[in-house]
Amino acid sequence: MSRSAQQRRLTLEFLEDRTVLSFLPVVTSPVGAQPRAVTVADFNNDGKPDLAVVNMGQSSTFQSSLSVLLGNGNGSFQPAVTTNVLNSALGQGVASSVAVGDFNGDHLLDVALNTSGSPANPAVEVMLGKGDGSFQPNHQILSVGQIPLSVAVGDFDRNGALDLVTANSQGTLSLLLGKGDGTFRPRVDLTVGAVPRAVAVGDFNGDGLLDVATAQQLSNTVSVLLGHGDGTFARPQSFVASGQDLTFTPSSLAVGDANGDGRSDLVINLIGGEDSVVSQLGVLLGNGDGTFRAPILQSPSTGGGGDVALGDFNHDGRLDAAVGGEAALPDGLSVFNGNGDGTFGAPFQSPLRFSTGGNDPFGVSAADLNGDGLVDLVAANTSSNTVGVLLNTSSPVIAAATTTTLDTSTATAVFGQIELLTATVSSQAGTPIGFVTFRDGNTVLGFEPVDATGKATVPVSLGIGTHALTATFSGANGFAASDSAATAVTVNPAATTVALRSSVNPAVTGQTVTFTATVAAVAPGGGTPTGTVTFKDGNVVVGTVAVGTGGTATFTTSFAAAGGHVITAVYSGNPIFVASSQALTEQVNAPTTHKATTTALLASANPVVVGQAVKFTATVRDPSGTGTPTGTVTFFVGTKVVARVTLDANGQASFTRVFSRTGRFTIRAVYSGNATFDPSEKSLTEQVNS
To answer: Which of 39-48, 50-59, 456-465, 495-504 comes out lowest in average pLDDT?
Structure first.
């Protein structure tokens, strides 16, 4: 690394409140060609912040890449290790944004970059981390909408697997729901405003579900899509980003609480002027219901359309904003001190400016890089092919002591049950700000930020056995780190149920019958049981079948003997699922021999005259003379049903009718048959005269 020759501090002092903001001289490190974005994360699990830098590549080739600089924990970094982006093509689009998360559940951080590759292949490229700052060689290329400009990460369907969302220049968002194994479902496109330049994730209506916000350059709007928690979203709501001044349009945005009311606000960098070298900071204060107030605008200043990073840089308890710039300025990084009411700086006051050691510091990120409790800054100098690190040396801060406790949703769980781990971080100095790392022994289960109530919660699913769970508060923003005591959670095998059904019941001897057993975990357990199902007829085993997809096992047989057969399906169980069984009685009957019948039909008078009553009697007989048929006879006049009569003890059924007009009428008697006797029918023609 190279450090400026003079080690003097860069200090700005405000006499009105004596709040001092100062940084050590910038330290730069070389990275790939034309770095565009930078983010801070721990890529080798050593507890020290590292840097990931997205490099667009030279305009002659546009070979994009990702540079990782492993941190030493003191604000210095090891030389960059650069990995080429695969979906990058000559003369086509470039990578310009990066999102970080554990996409395959191995507790190692992965990255996702928006790439264009070619007009026919816009994509997000997912690089799975190895845990040492490098990445697996097989990158996933996931199709998204045309010209993706920004990518963000969040669990939008609350299944514990991280999802991705991109803002695409054609006016859409592409949502890719994660499967938790590093792969993703096919994209779903959502329409927003014209030319969305940036996308951010937050809870804008306080319902605990993640929402999405985008900044549209061409339509000068911010679109907010409220999440339903199942991977779907409400229709976008649009909010004007810069009032009536359409000369300034959104370039980037960030989510934070700018006025300390506990509600998420949007901070936007607006660009304007010739060649877009003038910028303006805008703030949309959230109402807590998913809507936002009219924008609060700062005075325009020289800068450009760089990223926005939020943090309390001068340690006054108020949110500040750092903005990167495109202009080739010696002091291209702008810092706006927050007033705690949604405004930044004094009216008409220019922002504070700091050198990043290079030109065009477009990408900017804020984090505590050396563990001193102060928020530092790092910028990607696009035209200089470097990153610049500014270590914060604002007024010395004695870290306030904190206490971290860990609560679990239950002390005893079953396999597949979602266990909620809630860490509570408290301090006499106020509500701590920072991150909590949840561990099972030495295995990292997840990372979550501390919310406004001092809590951080993560859902986990644990394996069989007893687990010693801990929560570690990272310490930041003037608060010391702390660890919880170990909390024991025991996970037992999940109970199961077997649902058994027959394809036909009752059946007859010799008939094929299929029995299907469906094995399922009993809530709160989860997952699909595996193993075998043994089918028994009484105490005799008639077959054993492996449990297949969906937890089902089927067995087909037939029965030679009539009677009631008790069929039992016995699930074997395995180390994570408890055995279970279910029985049913299969009734098997001997085949029945039906007897033929004859039906006779007589009229009490034929012919008759209009208005005269006539009685029709059907007599059903067994020609063999061995029995009297039972059941019903249906009478028709033409095709119309006029009566349905039950046979009496003599096998007869009658009905009476009065005809209201002359003509020849067909009377039909139909015997329906039953389990013993076959159907039969008879017709006659009734003449009705005037």
So the answer is: 50-59
**pLDDT of res. 424:** 97
pLDDT of residue 7: 37
Q: Which has the closest alpha carbon to 551: 526, 577, 529, 534?
A: 529
Q: How many whole angstroms separate alpha carbon 68 and alpha carbon 79?
A: 8
DSSP codes joined into one string, 604-662? SSSSEETT-EEEEEEEEE-TT-S----SEEEEEETTEEEEEEE--TTSEEEEEEE-SS-
CA geometry: angle 662, 666, 672, nearest 5 deg: 145
Q: How far apart are CA 65 and CA 234, in angstroms?
A: 35
Pairing of strands 140-143, 123-127: antiparallel
Contact 312, 320 (CB under 8 A): yes
The residues, any chain, with a CB within 8 Å of residue 101's CB and separated by 6 or more, are 109, 110, 112, 153, 162
Residue 158's Cβ-side half-sphere holds a number of Cα atoms within 13 Å equal to 13
Do residues 250 and 215 touch, judged by C-beta distance below 8 A? yes
Please confirm whether the linkage preceding 449 is cis (ω < 30° from 0).
no
Q: Report which DSSP code applies to 400.
A: B
For residue 471, give the nearest of 461, 457, 489 by alpha carbon: 457
The label of the residue with tokens 């840097």 reads 51
Distances (CA, A) of 372 to 27, 70, 311, 397, 558: 17, 18, 15, 8, 77
Q: What's the CA gap between 605 and 603, in Å, rounded?
A: 5
- For 32-78, write each residue's pLDDT tens digit: 999 999 999 999 999 999 999 999 887 666 788 999 999 999 999 99
Share of the chain above pLDDT 70, in %: 90
Confidence label for 476 from pLDDT (cuts 50, 70 and 90): low
Sign of the Cα pseudo-torsion (523, 527, 532, 533, in order): positive
Structure tokens at 446: 């997840």
DSSP string over 448-476? EE--TTSEEEEEE---SEEEEEEEEE--B
**Residue 406: which of 373, 366, 454, 442 has the closest Cα?**
454
Q: Which pLDDT score, from 0 to 100, does residue 492 have? A: 97
Q: What is the pTM of this model?
A: 0.57
* Residues constituting the chain: 690
